[in-house]
């Protein structure tokens, strides 16, 4: 659902050409959406992520911070930043993802089923994605309307 929150900073599926080929074996895609988000935006968002280890609750210091800096809202226990969320690690992860995803993007582009959208916030890009999906997927009607 649309919101004013930024995109979740996690790549979708398939992420590699091997995964794309495996997916071909079980279904035929007719629409693939690629969200192009600037590298620095992704790096900043991922680097701002902190977690409460015991519960798995996730905070983002930019758009979903804890009430008290550095501690979980419910328990008051310290939050930690995962090693792979530190800025240097995030940059390396994003470079690796981009290299792995490039052939996947090219594959779907060559098939004519890739639709790309660029932006940094859900509420600004969602209307375009929604319009595309609405034009390709029939609406779901409640049971009483069938």
UniProtKB/TrEMBL annotation:
Gene3D superfamilies named among the record's database cross-references: P-loop containing nucleotide triphosphate hydrolases (3.40.50.300)
Record domain Adenylate kinase active site lid: where: 49-84
Keywords for the protein's UniProt record, in alphabetical order: Kinase, Nucleotide-binding, Transferase
Claim: Phosphoprotein is one of the keywords in the record: no
InterPro entries per UniProt: Adenylat/UMP-CMP_kin, Adenylate_kinase_lid-dom, ADK_active_lid_dom_sf, P-loop_NTPase
Record GO terms (molecular function): AMP kinase activity; ATP binding
Pfam families assigned: ADK (PF00406), ADK_lid (PF05191)
SUPFAM superfamilies: Microbial and mitochondrial ADK, insert 'zinc finger' domain (SSF57774), P-loop containing nucleoside triphosphate hydrolases (SSF52540)
Claim: Nucleotide-binding is one of the keywords in the record: yes
PANTHER family: NUCLEOTIDE KINASE
Similarity comment: Belongs to the adenylate kinase family.
Protein's name in the database: KAD4 kinase
